[in-house]
Write a structure and sequence with these properties.
By secondary structure, this protein is mostly helical. It has two domains: 3-138, no CATH class; 166-283. The chain contains eight helices and four strands, in the order αααβββααααβα. The chain has helices at 3-29, 44-56, 64-90, 110-136, 140-206, 211-245, 249-257, 267-283, and strands spanning 92-93, 103-104, 108-109, 262-263. The protein has a two-stranded antiparallel ribbon with strand order 1-4. Strands 2-3 form a two-stranded antiparallel sheet. A hairpin with a 3-residue loop joins strand 2 and strand 3. The two termini are 49 Å apart. The relative contact order is 0.10.
């Protein structure tokens, strides 16, 4: 099979895969959701997966059992590898089958692998011959022109998407930093109160006559400290809220497209951001 047809298959099946994801999300959520990793109407994992299956397994189309088993193995390996690479590159888990039985690292699970196997058999036996005939009628010059145009668009989209994800990760890092500082201040207030109470009890035993005087000093010191920390807390919470409120369209799309997106480093910050976007979306 030529590189020309493999590239065409990639774009055609990548688009059909995107349509499938959008249709599934539309039925499930009752509205349009761009479920692709990229901004454009293409899911590269579908394009690569089906292109590999039809290229490598076309010779098995007369042996349904072997075709099915081989399809399950290929698509499972591809999905696991894709999930693993995206996880390591961006420190985010984009989909999660951890709640499903017989899953591997949450990237793949037996049920969906078996379903993909059935889908691949139907594609190889029914859909792909029709797609191949349609593409065969396409003049090669037109085909290569489409490949170049779609390829350039794809790489631009990939660059924009990766940039957006890195921006989101930086935002989550800042939110996590603020949350950590708020926790530190809270701990410091608690420690100061504990130290003051402990010192007051010691004074009570050693110097009862000075207790009132020192107690007043403790009260003033704690009051000044509390005021200073209260201002810090207010400022930090304000900054945290500003970060949550600043949600460009690309960030909303990513979070809505991957409802099970999980940040390895900034889990709580991502949950706060997701919750705000979810509530804000309902209001609209």
């Amino acid at each position: 099979m030529s590189v020309y047809f493999i590239l065409l298959y990639f774009f055609v099946y990548g688009f059909l895969g995107w349509c499938t994801e959008v249709a599934f999300a539309g039925v499930k959520e009752g509205k349009f959701v761009n479920r692709g990793f990229l901004n454009g109407p293409i899911c590269p994992i579908y394009g690569v997966g089906v292109a590999v299956v039809v290229s490598c397994l076309d010779g098995l189309k007369d042996n349904l059992l072997l075709l099915y088993i081989s399809s399950v193995v290929l698509v499972t390996a591809l999905e696991w590898f894709t999930g693993f690479i995206l996880d390591k590159l961006f420190h985010n888990k984009w989909w999660d089958y951890s709640s499903m039985p017989l899953n591997l690292n949450g990237y793949v699970c037996l049920l969906f692998s078996l379903i993909w196997g059935v889908a691949c058999v139907l594609i190889v036996k029914i859909l792909h011959p029709l797609i191949h005939k349609a593409l065969d009628f396409l003049p090669e010059f037109v085909g290569w022109t489409c490949i170049v145009l779609f390829g350039v668009t794809l790489f631009v989209d990939l660059y924009v998407t990766v940039t957006d994800i890195l921006k989101m990760n930086r935002k989550l890092a800042k939110m996590n930093e603020i949350a950590t500082e708020l926790h530190r201040i809270s701990d410091e207030i608690g420690e100061n109160i504990y130290e003051d109470v402990t010192e007051a009890l010691e004074l009570k035993e050693e110097m009862a006559d000075r207790l009132k005087e020192r107690a007043a000093e403790f009260h003033e010191r704690r009051k000044d400290l509390s005021e200073d920390m209260r201002e810090q807390i207010i400022e930090l919470r304000k900054h945290y809220r500003e970060l949550i409120l600043r949600n460009p369209a690309h960030m909303k799309r990513i979070i809505r497209a991957f409802p099970k997106l999980e940040s390895r480093k900034y889990k709580d910050a991502l949950e706060d951001l997701r919750e705000y976007i979810r509530k804000n979306g309902k209001k609209k």
